Q: What sequence folds into this?
């Protein structure tokens, strides 16, 4: 069952084409990964799909609702965890969830139970009454995911969900994403880490300069370069022409300073 | 294929949002506004130090400027003592100071991704703007309490009539909401902390001095009088003076004061609601 469909989706900023007529569809329960170098158009794509940015041309729909014409309905059926740290540090974990439960019209009878279940599921029960300021990076990410799935969205958008996390925290976040997808939530995520895409994504689209360079399951992508045992890094190098890890940050000053700030907060 | 679509439609129909009545929409809007305000107040509860530090400046104005000018009698304030005349002006000033830098929180929230999360959620944009304005109102009420306390110490002739106190509450909340929304608009336009701080400083001065806060408008040259009459702060102070001080009267009439404040508030809210989504781009 197709949950998300992109049809010749295009976004231009003046002369610059950030997303160049991309088309694909994502099925229910998939964990779909968008990978690519900085400026490939991953975040722009997510911003269009989450109704933050209007597309220049083309169409995108989620659960049959057009993201531009039916934006308010789309906002009800998606959950979004931005790349930056979006949980409120000056509130407790419980309060962060409570406010979102109210904003998403979760009936007051159900609210308490859903929040407690969700804190339990994310392994945050013990820290529920602590200010989020005191959380570790991994805990904040889990809280943000809990916040984004409290209203049981059809599609969950994760922008670089494990950036700045240590390997253990990263594995934990992966596990939660897998469980959510098994429960029927469709996940669309961007990532810089090839081993992450390899570990949890059912399908991957490699983006470069606003285009889709390749799309398929990790195995299909590896086979497409004639080596089923290759790492995804190899695949990436084949399609993009360079390795991701060795790449200097290409973003502008603003992007770099934001990323560093996030990294610092995650400590 | 059709069956697939059918299942999907069922999923979607569980989320009842189509064809909601206007009354339900307005109820939802008001409800969301209060949730946003609640969020801000909860944050304030966890860390209220900001409120005390913000009170330092108005306290200095009253204690130093007020005491001195009461003695020199340089400013004609009719039958009122200068301190009585000035106290409502200083209350208005502290409301202005609390509200005018409020927009910077939007820039923080943009950098943290909180704005993105709000904008990708079904909360009406207007609710976010109004909710934030309302919470600025709550902050301002705490300032009003501090100013009342200072006024007591300085023997300002305060009115304690219940309806006067309610009046103060309304004027303070509306004014804080108004100036914080103004501040939010500036933040949406300039988009960086540094530029915002600069502009905030530049705006506070003329807003405060081109008003009747610390001297009557009658003293001003004509060109400044004209500006003062377009300054919402003038009507705020005018109403505060009538409510706060024994024997205080409103120059323009309370109905006109409230009308001017509410009208400015509505205009600013509409502009801020239109600009807010651009912060995330």
A:
């Amino acid at each position: 069952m197709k949950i998300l469909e992109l049809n010749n989706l295009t976004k231009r900023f003046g002369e610059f084409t950030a997303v160049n007529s991309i088309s694909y569809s994502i099925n229910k329960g998939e964990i779909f990964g968008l990978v690519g170098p900085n400026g490939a158009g991953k975040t722009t794509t997510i911003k269009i799909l989450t109704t933050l940015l209007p597309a220049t041309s083309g169409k995108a729909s989620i659960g049959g609702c057009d993201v531009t014409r039916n934006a308010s309905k789309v906002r009800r059926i998606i959950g979004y965890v931005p790349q930056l740290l979006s949980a409120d540090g000056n509130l407790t974990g419980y309060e962060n969830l409570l406010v979102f439960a109210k904003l998403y019209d979760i009936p007051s009878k159900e609210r308490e139970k859903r929040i407690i279940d969700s804190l339990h599921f994310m392994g945050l029960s013990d820290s529920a009454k602590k200010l989020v300021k005191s959380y570790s990076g991994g805990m904040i990410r889990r809280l943000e995911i809990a916040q984004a799935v409290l209203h049981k969205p059809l599609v969950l958008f994760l922008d670089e969900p494990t950036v700045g996390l240590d390997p253990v925290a990263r594995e934990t976040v992966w596990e939660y994403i897998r469980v959510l997808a098994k429960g029927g939530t469709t996940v669309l995520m961007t990532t810089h880490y090839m081993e992450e895409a390899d570990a949890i994504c059912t399908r991957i689209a490699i983006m470069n300069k606003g285009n889709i360079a390749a799309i398929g399951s990790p195995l299909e992508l590896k086979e497409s370069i004639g080596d089923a045992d290759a790492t995804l890094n190899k695949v990436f190098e084949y399609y993009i022409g360079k390795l991701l890890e060795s790449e200097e940050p290409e973003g502008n000053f603003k992007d770099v300073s934001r990323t560093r700030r996030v990294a610092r907060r995650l400590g | 294929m059709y069956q697939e679509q059918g299942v999907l439609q069922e999923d979607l129909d569980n989320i009842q949002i189509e064809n909601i009545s206007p009354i339900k929409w307005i109820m939802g809007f008001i409800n969301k506004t209060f949730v946003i305000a609640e969020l801000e107040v909860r944050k304030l509860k966890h860390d209220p130090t900001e409120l005390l530090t913000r009170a330092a400046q108005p306290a200095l104005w009253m204690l130093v400027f007020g005491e001195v000018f009461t003695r020199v009698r340089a400013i004609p304030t009719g039958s009122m003592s200068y301190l009585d005349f000035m106290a409502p002006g200083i209350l208005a000033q502290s409301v202005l100071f609390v509200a005018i830098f409020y927009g910077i929180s939007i820039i923080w929230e943009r950098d943290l991704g909180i704005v993105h999360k709000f904008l990708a959620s079904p909360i009406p944009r207007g609710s976010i703007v109004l909710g934030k304005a309302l919470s600025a109102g709550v902050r301002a009420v705490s300032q009003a309490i501090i100013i009342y306390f200072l006024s007591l110490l300085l023997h300002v002739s305060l009115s304690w009539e219940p309806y006067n106190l309610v009046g103060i509450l309304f004027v303070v909340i509306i004014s804080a909401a108004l100036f914080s929304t103004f501040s939010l608009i500036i933040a949406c336009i300039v988009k960086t902390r540094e530029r915002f701080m600069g502009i905030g400083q530049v705006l506070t001065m003329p807003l405060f001095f081109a008003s009747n806060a610390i001297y009557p408008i009658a003293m001003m040259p004509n060109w400044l009088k004209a500006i003062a009459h377009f300054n919402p702060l003038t009507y705020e102070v005018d109403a505060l003076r009538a409510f706060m001080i024994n024997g205080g009267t409103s120059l323009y009439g309370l109905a006109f004061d409230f009308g001017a404040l509410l009208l400015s508030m509505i205009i600013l809210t509409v502009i801020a609601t239109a600009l807010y989504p651009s912060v995330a781009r």
